[in-house]
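#struct-help
A.M.: can someone run this one for me? Single chain, 195 residues.
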Amino acid sequence: MKYLFYLLLVSLSIFSCQKDNLSENNVTNTEISADNTNDTISIQGTFLLISGKMYIHNLETNEKIYYNHFDNIKLKSSLNYEGSNYDIEKLEKNKTTWQFTLPNYLPGYGEFILNGDKNNPYGFYMTKSNWTIVEHPLSNTNNITVKMGGSSKPLSAYLIDKNERTLMFIIHEDYANINGYNCTYISELKFKKIN
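D.P.: on it. Structure tokens below:
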């Protein structure tokens, strides 16, 4: 029985995911800015989700693998390995939109609007070097609800192609017990700026 379990585990890891060396060489270091100067695009605006990957690092075996969030058949996924707890964790290819409104000053709060719901926004906290999606500062007032259980989602981004207006967001680093192993995981989501 134990042999069957290991055989199943090995076959799943070979056939259901792609292995990837997660070195710094995989990342383009062109950052996204608050404006459109030089070779960057502004984070302010609306972005459409077009693809994504979840990277998993087994902390016990040091194995690093990734899963594609979507394929030709699978159009829905989650930032959370074990399934979505909150709306912000639900992903749908070519449907999920993220909209960012910048704060008037740094550090400060702007707004993050998920899927066009301007009546019930999240907060978007920015400093010069960090971005975080948070509960809106006015949660529980003005019909703005708590949407993440009081938690936050730090994120970063890098530019893929300025002409195509595509960028990659890195979000939702978390820990989980996966198949009996302690693992950490994070998602890289490719978005296209649509306005």
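A.M.: thanks! The first strand starts at residue 18 and ends at 19.
D.P.: also worth noting: The two ends are 55 Å apart (CA to CA).
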